What does this fold into?
Amino acid sequence: MPSRRLGPDQLVVSAIGLGCMGMTWGYGKTDRTESIATIHRALDLGVTLFDTADIYGPFINEELVSEALTGHRQEVVLATKCGLQVPDASVFHHDASKFSLTKDGSPQHILKSCDESLRRLRTDYIDLYQLHRVDPQVPIEETVGAFASLVKAGKVRHIGLSECTLDELSRAPSTPDHDRPVRAFALDARCTLGNSAVLSAEWDRFSAFCPTRARVLNRSFRSSF
It folds into this structure.
């Protein structure tokens, strides 16, 4: 499996990562045994990047990924996300069209979510911690500042932003005592693909958001540059 380097700190990941959301939520019926077998097969094929989030399940996706990766922690890059308030688990529906999530980029939420994800993932650090959605009610500098404090505390090694604007990207690095974060650039987000050349030049690398669903990998997409 070829590798890629993300961000200024050169986080090394497999060229293809495994997004684990559908293993517990979002795409219909799930099968825990099959999901764990899929993760094991991905390991066999050389995949090192595994992406999850607290809202997937909710919460149980991180636990599933942790179980499947038992004994392989030093071989993989664990990526998870926060920044969305999860409805009460008792009313959380597997059909995404039947509920709404609340954005929460407050430092308090970020710090609390990280500790909870660490517990579910059964690890003492997260390789790549990402803001799932930008909260328009909280300045991005404050949100990224909370992420930076997690890096300083040793709980997080690299950070990313998902579905953000170019302005939000440009403001994030100005956070005091914060190095440039790894950027999770969403192909179908508010940043348009027309800006991706600018982003790749300025921020070193970006990771694709749902490239299969967005039809980037099956030649259905055509760029204009």
Remarks:
- The two ends are 28 Å apart (CA to CA).
- The longest helix spans residues 107-121.
- Residues 97 and 216 are 24 Å apart (CA to CA).
